[in-house]
């Protein structure tokens, strides 16, 4: 790591830490903040909460395509909630000064209105974070956008879920519930494009990073590039059953436009059908979820530029292993359809994906010191790709306002082109400090 | 014959007199105490403030609204807990379907992720939200899990000693509980660890009459091993407010009902 960068991280980190500490002490334990919050609530019925945090991370090895720092940012989040009587308004936004890409930006995470036009109906309209499905950091029927960059560099787990601009309508009947989500303009996931994180570039046949930021062809035509998701769910004696469908596009760009002069990634059309079951099992929680990914632009599997259709399955089990110690295990499968056609369509010399990709995950969480200290490990391991991704983390709540955390994103792989193996040189450690108000 | 009759009558009367003065059967005391402490009314709402003090005197606060609905008196219940403070857990919801014959079902809703997480809930003797109260203190320990014995009767209390049937499932060896003879509210419980040493005290500090139902509005847990304690205050307690069964479902995790907002 360059000396200058090291110094920069340390400075950012400590200035923020001591800055907030000193100001909160100087301002008599942030009394003005509390006064502001009380004032907002008393006079306008507005609920104000948020946090300010400083976060830094660095690569634990050299990556010729990236800077040594993987994360260096100061972030302010403000959330405003207002109960309108007939509905609830939520506005949540971040202001982040980000040194890795040298920019300060605003990110709007929530701007939505939740109301019930009928006794049996809830509607949430606007920017919102959406989640369903039963997987733990594995997703089959949750086709709402993710932010993989945030996930891999050590931002808070909250940032794995990217917001959608959507209309969500939920209907509650005696026999079942029905959720319908319409997204008028496609919201893609934040994919790994070479900015911040280096990746396997199939065009170049090598690892690339900031030297080749892989651009995408945005899908932004209102109505034409819309997404639709539905879930039908039912809870029978604490057994949670659900059916899902999705019509839209691969959330990460799983296709190439085929243009050799300006190659771009594209989001091919996708339809998904799936189901899940979650229930109490053997003193813990068991779940199973399956999905069929119909890659509509390459149904025959012969188009080498577009990802094939596939069948996905995940099954998991979680239970307490001891006092304040929880363990969870998952098995996940991606089973490619028409593997022969895929093999034939591959350019000679390209690494070939297996017909079946198996992934096992393990989660261990231990709570200590009145649950203020949380030690956790999440591990992905793929015996077929021969790669792994480990997420160790320590989180400590110093007080009701202050929290610190530190962790790592460790990628291991024997090949440069497998799902986790391609990120090997991005292996990083990070630390953060947060003041909640 | 007359002699015998009068003797028999005498015996009967003596029995009747003894019965009138004797304590109710242990089972009855335990049942009544369980009802008084955990099943007051058909449903209820309360605003709860917890102050957690650690061994070094540092405090942390929790504020939440709790809704309870009894499905069966003395049996299945549902709880809805909506967190207001500290701010990092604001709007987090905790939902419990309490069962008698099997593990409870628990869900947690994390608003930042819009995630409904189901929680493995086999160990009920873990801390509730980092306080010195345990899940079982909040939702009640199933009375059939212990053998109960009336060891003393004072002017004000029935004193019971309870010993777990399955000693391996809990961290205590037994506990002694003082039950108010008038209200049947448990006023104090002292827990002995496996070595027979007292290490934990749960105490009712204040009782109020709410809608004719005696209610603990302030209680305290002391952890004698660590020196920490938690004081809980129940405010705005109301019973029989007509909570609908549907409030305790996924719908209201994502959309908190007006009862908690």
Automatic annotation (TrEMBL), chain B:
Whether Signal counts among this entry's keywords is yes
- Which Pfam families does this UniProt record tie to the protein? LolA_like
Enumerate the InterPro entries for this protein: LolA/LolB/LppX (IPR029046), TP_0789-like (IPR033399)
Signal peptide positions on this chain: 1-22
- What keywords does the record list, in alphabetical order? Lipoprotein, Signal
The Uncharacterized protein TP-0789 domain extends over: 75-255
Q: Does the keyword Signal apply?
A: yes
The name of this protein is: Outer membrane lipoprotein-sorting protein
């Amino acid at each position: 790591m360059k000396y200058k960068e090291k110094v920069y991280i340390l400075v950012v980190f400590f200035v923020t830490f001591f800055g907030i500490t000193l100001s909160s002490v100087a301002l008599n334990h942030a009394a003005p903040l509390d006064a502001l919050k009380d004032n907002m609530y008393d006079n306008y019925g507005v609920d104000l909460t948020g946090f300010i945090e400083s976060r830094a991370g660095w690569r634990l090895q050299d990556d010729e395509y990236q800077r040594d720092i993987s994360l260096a940012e100061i972030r302010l989040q403000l959330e405003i909630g207002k109960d309108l009587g007939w509905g609830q308004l939520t506005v949540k936004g971040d202001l982040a000064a980000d040194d890795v890409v040298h920019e300060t930006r605003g990110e709007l995470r929530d701007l939505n209105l939740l109301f019930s036009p009928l006794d049996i109906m809830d509607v949430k309209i606007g920017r919102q974070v959406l989640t369903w499905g039963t997987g733990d950091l594995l997703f089959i029927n949750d086709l709402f956008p993710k932010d993989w960059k945030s996930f891999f560099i050590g931002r808070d787990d909250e940032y794995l879920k990217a917001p959608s601009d959507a209309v969500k309508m939920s209907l509650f009947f005696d026999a079942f519930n029905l959720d319908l989500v319409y997204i008028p303009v496609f919201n893609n996931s934040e994919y790994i494009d070479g900015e911040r994180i280096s990746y396997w570039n199939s065009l170049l046949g090598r690892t690339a990073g900031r030297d080749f930021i892989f651009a995408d062809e945005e899908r932004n035509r209102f109505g034409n590039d819309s997404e639709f998701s539905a879930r039908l769910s039912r809870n029978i004696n604490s057994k949670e059953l659900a059916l899902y469908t999705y019509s839209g596009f691969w959330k990460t760009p799983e296709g190439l436009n085929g243009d050799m002069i300006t190659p771009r990634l594209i989001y091919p059309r996708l339809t998904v059908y799936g189901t899940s079951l979650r229930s109490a099992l053997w003193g813990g929680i068991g779940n199973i979820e399956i999905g069929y990914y119909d890659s509509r632009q390459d149904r025959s599997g012969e188009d080498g530029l577009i990802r094939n259709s596939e069948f996905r399955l995940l099954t998991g089990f979680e239970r307490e292993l001891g006092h304040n110690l929880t363990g969870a295990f998952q098995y996940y499968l991606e089973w490619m359809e028409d593997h022969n056609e895929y093999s034939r369509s591959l350019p000679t010399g390209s690494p070939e994906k297996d017909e079946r990709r198996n992934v096992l995950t393990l989660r261990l969480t231990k709570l200590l010191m009145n649950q203020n200290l949380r030690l956790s490990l999440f591990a992905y391991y793929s015996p077929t790709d021969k790669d792994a991704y480990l997420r160790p983390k320590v989180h400590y709540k110093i007080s009701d306002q202050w929290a610190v955390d530190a962790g790592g994103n460790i990628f291991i792989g024997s090949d440069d082109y497998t799902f986790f193996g391609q990120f090997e040189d991005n292996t990083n450690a990070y630390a953060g400090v947060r003041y909640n108000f | 014959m007359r002699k015998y009759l009068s003797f028999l009558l005498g015996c009967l009367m003596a029995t009747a007199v003894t019965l009138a003065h004797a304590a109710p059967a242990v089972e009855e005391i335990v049942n009544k105490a369980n009802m008084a402490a955990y099943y007051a009314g058909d449903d209820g709402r309360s605003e709860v403030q917890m102050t957690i003090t650690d061994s070094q005197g540092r405090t942390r606060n929790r504020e939440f609204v709790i809704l309870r609905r009894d499905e069966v008196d003395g049996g299945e219940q549902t709880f809805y807990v909506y967190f207001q403070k500290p701010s990092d857990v604001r709007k987090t919801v905790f939902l419990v379907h309490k069962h008698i014959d099997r593990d409870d079902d628990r869900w947690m809703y994390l608003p930042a992720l819009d995630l409904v997480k189901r929680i493995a809930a086999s160990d009920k003797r873990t801390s509730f939200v980092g306080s010195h109260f345990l899940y079982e203190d909040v939702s009640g320990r199933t009375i059939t899990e212990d053998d109960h014995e009336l060891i003393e009767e004072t002017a004000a209390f029935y004193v019971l000693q309870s010993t777990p049937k399955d000693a391996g499932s809990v961290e205590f060896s037994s506990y002694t509980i003082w039950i108010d003879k008038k209200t049947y509210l448990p006023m104090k419980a002292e827990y002995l660890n496996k070595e027979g040493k007292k290490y934990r005290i749960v105490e009712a500090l204040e009782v109020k009459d709410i809608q004719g139902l005696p209610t603990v509005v302030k209680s305290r847990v002391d952890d004698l091993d660590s020196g920490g304690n938690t004081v809980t205050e129940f405010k705005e307690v109301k019973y029989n407010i007509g909570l609908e069964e549907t409030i305790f479902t996924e719908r209201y995790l994502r959309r908190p009902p007006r009862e908690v907002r």
